[in-house]
Amino acid sequence: MEHKPRANLQATTGGGVSVSERERQRIADLVAIIPPGDSVLDVGARDGVLTTKLLPRFRRVVAVDLNPPQIPGAECRKANACDLPFGAQEFDVVACTEVLEHVPEIELACSELLRVAREAVVVGVPYRQDLRVGRLTCSQCGLEQPAYGHVHGDLDEDRVSELFPGTSIEFHPCGPPRPRTNAASALLMSLAGNPYGGADQQEPCIECGAQVARPRLTPRSRALAGLALRLDRVISPEAAPNTWLHAVIHKNCGAA
Length: 256
Description:
Layout: H1 19-33, E1 39-43, H2 49-54, E2 60-65, E3 75-78, E4 91-97, H3 106-116, E5 117-126, E6 136-137, E7 144-145, H4 157-163, E8 168-174, H5 183-191, H6 219-235, E9 244-250
Parallel strand pairs: 1-2, 1-4, 2-3, 4-5
Antiparallel strand pairs: 5-9, 6-7, 8-9
């Protein structure tokens, strides 16, 4: 369970959609699909954007993260997604969005979400992410790593179904298309030192913990990266259909 970046609100995606608008779309879709209930747990609540919208809908709202959130009106606690300090079926609904892609022990985290949920779990993950896109190189340890500390790029309907066996799942893809790259472009970007990766990233290096910073562009790296971008426009595979995959996981397999 990690803290995710709040990107510059003036930034735009490759498709011209502003980051703030994308975030509004993501939250609106989640709010629309979260089932009703008496109690809800928001795992990986960060600054409480989703938690705040759940306060009018549930009598008990609990928000947890690696650092205790500060969200007025909610019970806020420090907790790890792989070891939730709650009893079995303590919450009617459990929400966990923009978290699982960061967790190496993803199977354990998913089993914990199911354990503490009575009725349903709602998750949101990047949809079929190409981890080579936006990759960066740590200036301290030299490790090449996916942007934003994501360690899982294979998250789609099949993978989510594997992670939550014995449940009934409603899938809700949303957001604009997610770009993909190709092997040649990825290699050229790597040789260039990944100069365009990790824009606005707040997560530290997943290996050494240092704050990640973009390397300085040199004539060589600029030329290699420029060639990579041109190749991307010509030979990269079709973009993934959506940026996010949201899913409502019903513990009762007879649910619609």
